[in-house]
## 1
Amino acid sequence: MPSFPTRRSFLKSAAAGSTAIGLNALHYSRVYGANRRLGIASVGTGGKGWSDLNGVAASPDVDVIALCDIDSSAKHLGQAAQKYRSARQYDDWRKLLDDSSDIHGVLVSTPDFMHAPISLAAMHLGKHVFCQKPLTHTVHEARQMRKAAAKFNVTTQMCNQIQSHSAYRTAVHMVHTGMIGKVKEVHSWQGGQPSWPRNIPRPKGSDPVPEHVRWDLWQGVASERPFKLEMYHPFNWRGWQAYGTGQLGDFGCHILDPVFKSLKLTSPTKLTVEAPTLLAESWTDRATVYYEFPGTEYTAEPTLRVTWYDAAGVLPPREKLGDVPANYQLPKAGSVLVGEKGSLVIPHVAMPTIFPEEKFPAKELPVIDGVDHYTQWADACMGNGKTTSHFDYAGPLTETVLLGTIGIRFPGQELAWDADALTITNHAQAQEWVTKPYRKGWEPTWI
Ligand SMILES: NC(=O)c1ccc[n+]([C@@H]2O[C@H](COP(=O)([O-])OP(=O)(O)OC[C@H]3O[C@@H](n4cnc5c(N)ncnc54)[C@H](O)[C@@H]3O)[C@@H](O)[C@H]2O)c1
């Protein structure tokens, strides 16, 4: 954890010969301001980035120093620039990082495929990082993010913010206090209908790039393609394999999070997927992923089956949900943990319920307060407390989710995973998807 110098101690060490000029980027970036304030930069200020920025800036100790967005229109850079008037403005995150001696932490709220390149570059400069979920676009990137956070000793948080909500914290508490006993199996699902493009080929032709959009910078590490209105930027990039991670990638780091946290899961050892044949470039809108994990202190058996279902209107098979009554209306998205003493329903997002009801009357269930996921990171950057979705946790969670997205490419084929070796040991073609090629000149800085 970086130490927290006062202005006086900083000046004293500078006078002793360790001047600002002599400091390398890592040290320089850790020197907090005169009043112990945290200078932050936001990359991707529209969409979810807007609430990330406001969420972190809600900390009384934070100064918004710089804003970066490839789109200068009102909904993107515009509104942030209007609100944080003294912040420097950029369209290229690389230039922002070149100028970042007064920035201690970087928020990365871009589309999925740019999370790792930006976050890794920031961590190499010693910056703390708050990054959107899923942490990365590939499994290899997730491993690199975890390693970089440890190597550069920076404070990190993935923005699966529901982890800090009372609902998910209560569910984790219920498992940890043994209310449902050891867990025998888990079913997690997202039954909502995605609104982004799916199961379609790449559109033909091109549209003029609006003046306010820097399309080349948007494409970043991905190979170049023509701009098409409302097809990629904003939001709809989710449906394209080159940029997003499909429905599992979009929701897995939320919905599987209380499962991971409560059962202290690490990495699956194998998985099999049921899904229709994937088109070359877009994601599918239905998949079932059967993961097998090594058992933990919270599981009933030496291995644990976790099943993920996503398709519009899908719910897990009722007969597999233990004590959940047949007439109970399951939430559209969530998880059921089937335990030896009861079944825990964790809706996405509402307070959890335990069955059988007569054993667990609703009014007697515990409630754990929520915490602020955003200011938790800002506080932790300044040495106060710790984050709960740091990359040591978020890395393996994201790897698991993204292994499922590899499985979607090879339906019906069991994939055996050796997490230590970062290798799908029984399927050379699937192994190729653990990483990906990068656009020339945009290769990330690996550990
Ligand atoms: N935690 C959550 O609940 C939640 C909710 C929504 C989205 N997300 C995540 O947030 C991220 C962004 O999703 P979104 O829906 O806001 O996408 P979006 O496309 O609507 O917004 C992304 C923003 O980043 C900007 N941007 C894109 N590339 C950039 C680059 N290279 N440099 C600087 N700015 C860039 C865009 O102009 C836009 O302002 C995704 O990773 C997504 O999974 C998380």
## 2
Amino acid sequence: MSGPGEVTLELDDIQRGILSPRPTPYAATYLAFRVDDPAHGRELMRRASAVVTSAADSASPLGETWVSVAVTSTCLAALGVPRSSLDTFAWEFRQGMAARAKALGDVGESSPENWEAPLGNPEVHVVITAVAPDPLLLETAVDRARPAYDNLPGVTAIWRQDCYALPTETEHFGYRDGVSHPAVEGSGIPGSNQLEVPLKAGEFILGYPDELGGTQTPLPDALGRNGSYAAFRKLHQRVAEFRRYLKDNSTDPSDEELIAAKIMGRWRSGAPLALAPRCDDPALGADPHRRNTFLYQRDDPAGFNTPGGCHIRRVNPRDTSVAGEVRLHRMIRRGAVYGPPLADGVLEDDGSDRGLMFAFIGAHLGRQFEFVQSEWINDSIFFGGGDAKDPVAGSADGTTGYTIPRRPLRRRLAPLPRFVVTRGGEYCFLPSLSALRWLGDLRD
Ligand code: HEM
């Protein structure tokens, strides 16, 4: 499975949800729990170790149906993990996502006091995720998870969010999602960009060398090794407002599609501007072998095809000359749509809550998720773009327009409103299967 000089990952100890791409299509559910009785919480961990699927299990009879378990830092403390061990976990994880709101741009309507309860509250202790290829099998996955928390009065389910990915993987703004994924050395799972050298396993799995040559593992090793971190985010999408912005800033329907592509960096079909700069190429958008194999710097340093400020070039500038080292800021990204789609062509909001449930996974919360969110999404200094924000996911305040590089004159669009509002989120640790047992064996 691993090439010469590559690290060998202990796949049978690593949660499958960290490394395995989700099936297409799929249904998923996020269940959050509060632990009132530490003994019951530890029992939950012990039982969870038996229902969580490992990364070695990809050919199991249950196929693409699996369960993951994540815990917050308040959970680890409640279960009795000693302070000396807690202090070795990532600083951002120990703070919790709500405490990091300002740095993440979660201000105004996105600020934690406006989050959906109980997200952001210290009572969120455990998050169980079940994934399956369709809603029927999802119930099978949930049934598989149930023995972990059934009949434990000291563990209470406090939140559930169902979500799904369509066969086209289209998210609510109408773009194909789930396209670009990094390759992880030693995982056996190929990335989607053949021009990207696989990333060191330690970028995503704790206990292995990372891109800087170091090995970060929360202590003791039995707890930290083979684990990872996840930043969960529930992001509400203002679909009608997004559609109106495209319409109001374009001259006709084909110009509207061009603007939509210039904002994202891909046509809605998934075809990248880097490979299809003038018009959409739906066959390219549907081809997993071609649609993500490209770089920016050689052919398009100034962004005439793919603007430096568009969503995908910001969040992964690839080989673009930007301040910093791009490979230190990569993430494994799992997004699923929640809420009903807004009917085609509707330009008025219907009041429904719809958006994306994300899990951004990596071993370095600070230099991965937090960096991308604060420096690349909510700032443009890194590529010389002033104070503009990501046109899709940024915390825009209606003051800064969007710039499309163009010869002889750049094109300026109207000031961007905020299209995405944070409904909540949490930083979690994804323990290894043996660490779940270790947590289960803790004593008061
Ligand atoms: C509701 C908000 C968001 C929407 C609608 C959205 C949509 C998309 C779409 C359509 C793509 C292109 C398809 C793909 O590569 O899978 C994409 C790529 C990506 N997004 Fe987002 N996104 C959102 C928020 C975020 C946030 C908050 C982050 C990071 C903090 C992020 C990070 C990424 C990354 C890393 C890629 C891959 C870029 C590449 O490698 O080319 N996205 N997103």
